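On clarity, I found the account of how folds are encoded harder to follow than it need be. For illustration, here is how one protein appears when written out as sequence plus structure tokens.
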Amino acid sequence: MDKHSGVGVVDKTAAILGALEQGPATLAELVTTTHLARPTVHRLALALEHHHLVGRDARGAFILGRRFSELAATVGEDRLVSAALPVLTTLRDRTGESSQLYRPHGAHRICIAAVDRPVGLRDSIPVGTTMTMSAGSAAKVLLAWEEPARIHQALADANFTAADLAQVRDAGHAESAGEREAGVSSVSAPVWGTAGTVIAAVSISGPIERLTAHPGAAHASAVMDAARQLSDVLRRTDH
């Protein structure tokens, strides 16, 4: 396919984004990969960063920005919800707790699929519920792999710390107890999109008396399995 559209700035921008699709890159690496002048790459990368099409990782290298995951979530939401319902049902049956799927929604998160525990005391989250990104295991999962500037901004009002998010990245899941709502525990794990970004969080939630203050010990494996299944579905259906 011809990579030259005849609109120079668009072609140069596409070259930068194409290079970042392969993974994080420093300014020097972008110059080498794109064969563009250093001032041009720097100017365009900063402009893309302003619009959140480009971000930075923890070491300051350029990465694809959160806007791509937001757009992908919007485009792929129907597909994701369709795939999620059987996975969430299995997760509910495996853990005995209500299960949910959240995606980022600006400065909040929104529940886009849920399967409730059929009987007994449960944490019921209706589809469409908008929640804070300042508390809860799903919020931590959705923020943990974000670009540093976004994390820094969110932590100003959060009930968790940068160290907590680092622990989430290391463990591959998050847990909370009484953080979002008194008496409720939860466990969440990331759903990865095809662009290598976290586009959603799979969760279970229920009363702390049943799930305990450390629900990850018993249920992290099941929640991570469910998140991996959804990530695999998205990879398969993207081709």
Observations:
- Residues 8-64 form a domain with the Arc Repressor Mutant, subunit A fold (CATH 1.10.10.10).
- Residues 66-95 form the longest helix (30 residues).
- The CA atoms of residues 52 and 70 lie 10 Å apart.
- The chain has a mean pLDDT of 89.
